[in-house]
Amino acid sequence: MSVMLTEKAAKQIKKQLEKRGKGIGLKIGVKKSGCSGYAYALDYADQLEDNETVFEEYGVKLIVKQADLPYIDGMELDYRREGINEAFQFNNPNVKATCGCGESFSV
């Protein structure tokens, strides 16, 4: 199982961790939410828990709870800027459907 990171996303994560002043990486996972079932959850990681797996690319650590891996296995985390909007983009091959607003997904 794996979760990948683009170079643009890695640069943004590094920038956010530096601004924050601490942290070992970015936690990425899923939570039950929305009309389609699941939503992505992002948070800073200050320490590694026993039930977490670490993926590292471009010098940045992505930390994922083992229970969330089946939902995001093979996903690529990207960072895009379009006009005045900028955000992380989740390219997840496991997604079968998304809600109309794009905030939640089903697998």
What does this structure look like?
Strand 8 (97-98) and strand 9 (105-106) form a beta hairpin. The longest helix is centred in the N-terminal third of the chain and has 14 residues, at 7-20. This protein has one domain (3-100): Hypothetical Protein Aq_1857, Chain: A, CATH 2.60.300.12. The model has no long low-confidence stretch (mean pLDDT 87). The chain has 107 residues and is of the alpha/beta class. Helices cover 17% and strands 49% of the residues. The two termini are 16 Å apart. It has a four-stranded mixed sheet with strand order 3-2-5-4. Strands 1-6-7 form a three-stranded mixed sheet.
In short:
This protein has 107 residues and is an alpha/beta fold. It is built from two helices and nine strands, in the order βαββββαββββ.
Q: Quick one: CATH class?
A: Mainly Beta
Which radius of gyration do the C-alpha atoms yield? Answer: 14 Å
**Strand ordering within the main sheet:** 3-2-5-4
- Reading the helices and strands in chain order gives EHEEEEHEEEE
| Overall number of structural domains | 1
Helix count from the secondary structure assignment = 2
The poorly predicted ranges are none
| Percent in strands | over 45%
CATH architecture: Sandwich
| Secondary structure tally: strands | 9
